[in-house]
Structure prediction request, 77 residues.
Amino acid sequence: MSTITDEQAEDIQEAREILVNMLRSVEEHGPYSAEATCTFLRQAILCLPRFSETFCSSCSKALGPGNSGASHCGDHK
Prediction:
């Protein structure tokens, strides 16, 4: 299994921060409306990779988490 890139680590950290901030605010001020809660959760989801493991279609190399794999080896080497 591949390790995550610095950019992926930053995205995961951003998602975590969004969720932690939402939880702290709910604890301090009470629950948000359903609309506001969904907006926060959508923001967090967008920071996370869509797939836990991606691959190169040409060589089958595991590329780690991401939103898409690679079609050609030149795309990941």
Notes: The CA atoms of residues 30 and 49 lie 30 Å apart. The chain has one domain: 6-75. The helical segments are 6-29, 34-47.
